[in-house]
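User: Hey, quick favor. My workstation is busy. Could you predict this chain's structure for me?
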Amino acid sequence: MEIALTGGKKIEVRWDDFVVEADQSKAAGGEGDAPEPFMLFLASLGACSGMYALSFCQARDIPTAGLKLRQKLVSDAEGKRLEQVRIEIVLPPEFPAKYEKAIVRVADQCAVKKAIQNPPLIETVAVRA
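Assistant: No problem, here it is.
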């Protein structure tokens, strides 16, 4: 991945044929044109859990119409530290009851969640162009 500082508070992350943009909110000095980096991080957690839930349903030919995930964030009293992320799998009425606990277990296997729970070493170094 290559991260480019594109002006103001904007960032572009490029890898392969993909580009993800990030910005800061207006309150934080940005233009608010793209999600803040921390929100992209949280979005990756929800998207990963959703992908696991989707794969679970597809493997069992369970229709996914009406199936969705909701991610709720709980911060400390000052609103500065994230204390909890709650991911709710919203099941449509016709979702088979016998798979209710199983889809939760599968979504819980999300690779992003596992990386947070057992964090890798993250090293930042300066190199010359």
